[in-house]
Every structure is written in C-alpha cells, then in structure tokens.
TrEMBL record:
GO terms for biological process: proteolysis. It comes from Pilimelia terevasa. Residues 175-198 are annotated as: Disordered. Residues 1-24 form the signal peptide. GO terms for molecular function: serine-type endopeptidase activity. This is Trypsin. Belongs to the peptidase S1 family. SMART domains: Tryp_SPc (SM00020). Keywords: Disulfide bond, Signal. It comes from the Bacteria. Residues 32-238 form the Peptidase S1 domain. The keyword Disulfide bond applies.
Length: 239
C-alpha cells in the first residue's frame, strides 16, 4: 500500500506506514517528503508506543482536538505488534520534545482513532474538526507530520527533526487503509511519507482528514468531515 504512520504534523504529518497495506513499511520510518518546517501548530501531537514493538518510539503524528482527546490513525495502534499502552508528546514542534501525556483508552472507526488522555492538557491548543468534506478539486489542502523526509517506501531515510507541512491537491474520492471514506490527494509542494500517519490534513482552518496511506506522489487521508465519521467524533469526544 502506502500506509502513512506518524506524519506524522507538518507536511501533513508524516509518520505511520504510508505504504500500501500489502507492503506496509514500519510506521516509524518516515516524515513529510519535501514541504517545509512548520512554525505554528500548537495542536500537534507525537504518537508514542509505550510497549510492544519499538517501545517508547515516536511512530506517528496526531492532533489535539480537545483537552483530553487526541485524533490519529487506527493503524498507528495496530501495526506490527504495537502493544497496548500509548502516549503522546504535546507542546513542541521538535521531534522527541514536549510534555508527555498517557493514553487511558481509545476507540476506532475505519482508520480513524480517538484517544482519551489519562490527564487533560492544561490550557490546550485544540484543532477544530471540519463539519463537511471540502469541495473537489481543491489545491490548498495542507498536511502536517513528523515523518520521513523522503518518499514512502524509500530506505535509508531519517525522520524530520521537527514538524513539517506541505500543500497538496484533493482531486479524487478514495478509501483509507481500513476501507473507510478518504480524500485522495495529489503531491504538491510535498507529500506524506512514513511516520506521517495519523497526522492531519487541513482546509478552511479545520482538520478535514487523517493520514492513512501514501505512495510517492499520492496519499489517502481518512475523511473526518463525512457525516458518519463526524457524528462518531462528536458523540464520543464531544467536539
């Protein structure tokens, strides 16, 4: 495929396994390819596996959508023996820095996951979730993540030292890694890569997607503005 994993928040968060499921790469392998470093994304979160494979490693990107709720991708939690305990780093754009918050519970719908924090983030900077799917075509979809700085499924890359972002075009309807509705994006100033998984896609000042899969020039972001998914987020996270 092209799973993203941990975009991971700057070129749409590069960081989960944005490679096709059939040939998924390790979620913690990469970051946004090309793009630029972010300077203002206080809602960004770095996803950590506390146990399982790669314990305490930052493997995906995520977003704070409420003081005690984090939005990310389901495959970040389930890919290759990821374990049962998770945490996030919040408050810094630099990889590996920030305040750590433990995850108390989580729930998923398709490749979208909501994580409930054990302790709310004081004075949290939260990212608003869109109430509708953006119009198509749209050439101003901004993605964020801490993933690799080279295309998905490329060996020998290192994760970005800080959150990155890139602008892509929404030009087709697609399906995410778990079969849910997704935004089909085309490379623009950059593209999502491994480790960007779970990272957000923004349009109109709100999150419209969550990084699910990607290849060299295209990416699929779970569409959180779809009525079914939007209701699910509102019913559970209250936002």
């Amino acid at each position: 495929m092209r799973r993203v994993m941990t975009l991971t928040l700057a070129a749409a968060v590069a960081a989960t396994a944005f490679v096709a499921p059939a040939a998924a790469a390790d979620p913690g392998q990469s970051r946004i390819d090309k793009g630029k470093f972010s300077t203002d994304a206080p809602w960004g979160a770095q996803f950590i596996r506390v146990d399982g494979s790669r314990p305490n490693a930052i493997v995906c990107s995520a977003s704070v959508i409420a003081p005690d709720w984090i939005l990310t991708a389901d495959h970040c939690l389930t890919y290759q023996n990821t374990g049962r305990k998770f945490a996030v780093l919040v408050g810094s754009l630099k990889r590996g820095e920030g305040t750590r918050y433990e995850v108390a519970s989580h729930m998923s719908k398709y490749d979208v996951t909501l994580m409930k924090l054990a302790t709310p983030i004081p004075e949290a900077a939260v990212a608003p979730v869109a109430d509708a799917v953006p119009a198509m075509p749209s050439a101003d979809i901004e993605i964020y993540g801490w993933g690799l700085e080279c295309p998905a499924q490329t060996n020998g890359c290192k994760p970005a030292p800080a959150l990155k972002q890139a602008t892509l075009t929404y030009n087709r309807k697609a399906r995410d890694h778990k079969g849910g509705p997704a935004l089909g994006l085309q490379r623009g100033t950059g593209n999502a890569s491994n480790g960007d998984s779970g990272g957000p896609a923004w349009a109109g000042g709100k999150i419209v997607g969550v990084a699910s899969t990607a290849v060299r020039d295209t990416a699929e972001y779970s569409s959180v503005g779809e009525p079914e998914i939007r209701r699910w987020i509102r019913d559970n996270a209250g936002v």
